[in-house]
Amino acid sequence: MTKKYKVFGIGNALVDMEFEVTEKFLLENNVEKGLMTLVEQERQAELLEKLSGIQHKRNCGGSAANTVIAATQLGASNYYSCKVANDETGEFYYSDMKEIGVRSNIEESRFDGETGKCMVLITPDADRTMNTYLGITSTYAKDEIIKDELINSEWLYIEGYLVTGPNSKEAAIYARDIAQENGVKVALTLSDPGIVGFFKDGFKEIIGTKKLDLIFCNEEEAMSFTGQDNLESAMESLKELTNAFAITTGPKGAVVFDGAHTTYVLTNKVDAIDTNGAGDLFAGSFLYAITNGSSYGEAARFSCACSSKLVTQFGARLKTDQILDIKKQYLS
Question: Is 54 helix (H, G, I), strand (E, B) or coil?
Answer without folding.
Answer: coil
